[in-house]
């Protein structure tokens, strides 16, 4: 029984800040930067204040091209009426 618990705990995937930023917060960051014209320090402050998600603005800047590409691919697929999922 203890062996199963140990294996289950080791098999759990650790949620990292980068995966949370690229997954959950990507649409929000994209909207803030592209439509609201926020700078990366402003995005960092917004996430900390309104979502209790503290992350550095340089890290957001580093991951932003990947997030932007993902969101734009989803938007293009949505416009064409095809499903990516």
The overall pLDDT average reads 86
Share of helical residues: over 70%
Instruction: Write down the overall geometry.
Output: flat
Q: For the CA atoms, what is the radius of gyration?
A: 17 Å
* Total number of beta strands: 0
C-alpha end-to-end distance: 38 Å
Largest sheet: none
The secondary structure category is mainly alpha
Give the percentage of residues in beta strands: under 5%
Spans of at least 5 consecutive residues whose pLDDT stays below 50 are none
Order of helices and strands: HHHHH
Total of helices: 5
Q: Could you explain the architecture of this structure?
A:
It is built from five helices and no strands. It has helices at 2-11, 17-23, 26-34, 40-51, 57-80. Helix 4 crosses helix 5 (57-80). The mean pLDDT is 86. The protein is mostly helical.
Concise summary:
With 85 residues, the chain is mainly α.
Q: How does the SSE layout of this entry go?
A:
Blueprint: H1 2-11, H2 17-23, H3 26-34, H4 40-51, H5 57-80
Helix pairs in contact: 2-5, 3-5, 4-5
What are the main properties of this structure?
85 residues, mainly alpha, 0% strand
């Amino acid at each position: 029984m203890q062996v199963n618990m140990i294996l289950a705990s080791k098999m759990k995937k650790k949620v990292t800040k980068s995966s949370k930023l690229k997954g959950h917060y990507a649409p929000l960051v994209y909207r803030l930067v592209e439509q609201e014209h926020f700078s990366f320090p402003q995005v960092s402050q917004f996430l900390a204040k309104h979502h209790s998600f503290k992350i550095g603005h340089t890290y957001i800047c580093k991951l932003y091209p990947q997030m932007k590409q993902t969101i734009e691919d989803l938007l293009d697929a949505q416009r064409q009426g095809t499903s990516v999922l």
